[in-house]
Structures are given as C-alpha cells and as structure tokens.
Amino acid sequence: MAKATSMIFHNMDDISGDDRNAILVILGLLLIATYQATLSPPSGVWQGENTTGSYDATVVGKSVMSEITFLLLYIPTYVVFIVAFFLTLALLKPFPRGFRNALQVLLAFLAICFDQSISFISPTDLSSLILNMFSVVIFILTVFMFVEYRVSMLSSRSWDVGYPSMLVIPFSV
Q1: Spatial distance between the Cα atoms of 98 and 171, rounded to a whole number of angstroms
Q2: pLDDT tens, position by position, for the chain (173 residues)?
Q3: Which has the closest alpha carbon to 135: 82, 71, 99, 69?
Q4: Which domain of life is it from (predicted)?
C-alpha cells in the first residue's frame, strides 16, 4: 500500500494551479458519470404501478440486470467514484478553509447519496450487501492511503526543518 500511496500522491502539493484545475474538472466528470450510472442503470429499472396489486412490490424500482451483471458493473463504478472522491478532496487543499470545508461537506453528502442510490436499485438484497461490504473495504483502504501519505509528509517535513517528528505512525502493509 505504501508504494501505491507514493505513486498516487507523489508531488501532489507541487501541482500548478492550472493543472490542479484541469485535474479537478476531470475528477468532477468522473464523479458525475459514475453517479449518473446509479440514477440510470443500463437496461433501466423494473417499472410498475400499485393499482392492481398484481406485481411484486420488491421488484419495482430495482435494476433489470441480473445480480452478477449488476455487480460486474457497479464494483468498478464504486472504485472509480471513491478514488475520484478522495483525489478531489486532496486537491482542495489550497482553497480557502471555509470554502474547502463547504465543498467537503457537499462531497460527503454526494458520496452518501451515491451509496444509497446503488443500494436502492440493487436487484437483490445479496448484491446490495456485497456492494456495501465492498464500499466499506475500499473506503477504509483509501483512508489508510491518505493517512499514510499525510504521515509521510509530516515526517519528511519535520526532518527537513532539522528536528525529528513528534508523531511517527508506521503504516506498512
């Protein structure tokens, strides 16, 4: 994990303003595209009305795709969304604190809506459970990557100044 972290975040603080803006636009497009996939899944969702009572109420609003096809589509979608989400948060660092905090709260609500949207359209309870477990694992791994990056940045900066770091937490996985 340390190698992946260093590859992803190497020189992230040295990105120029124009490059940062371009990357934020690309990440925004990735967030929009993955979120749109949860709102309009391929093949659509089961339709129905509750006027006759002749349909299975648990099917209406669920994805038409089979469970395996659904998981094969939405597991990579989760990965793209979570990685784009955290990279966007990392790139917001130079923005003013109040503005950055407001954007982070809005992005957090977007992530919650993304997760809930996939859960709502999941064709079965099992696929919903699998995706929820997968999202928790990906979230934890991504948080560890950020923590490792920040700790390595803190320790390298404190050594650059000439005194050892007061907080050194090894995260070698």
Answers
A1: 30
A2: 555 555 555 566 677 888 888 988 999 999 999 999 888 888 888 787 655 555 555 577 888 888 899 999 988 998 899 889 888 888 887 788 888 888 888 888 888 888 888 888 888 888 888 888 888 887 788 777 767 766 666 666 555 454 444 444 444 44
A3: 82
A4: Eukaryota
**What sign does the dihedral 118-124-125-126 (CA atoms) show?**
negative
Tokens of 10: 């190497």
Residue 160 and residue 148: Cα distance in Å, rounded?
A: 18
pTM of the model: 0.69
What does the angle CA 109 – CA 114 – CA 117 come to, to the nearest 5 degrees?
120
* CA–CA separation, 5 and 72 (whole Å): 26
Cα distance between residue 117 and residue 76, in whole Å:
15
Amino acid found at 109: F
β-bridge mates for residue 63, sequence order? 45
List 45's β-bridge partners, or say none.
Answer: 63
| Distance of alpha carbon 43 from the chain centroid | 24
Q: Report how far residue 119's alpha carbon sits from residue 113's, in angstroms, rounded to the nearest whole number.
A: 10
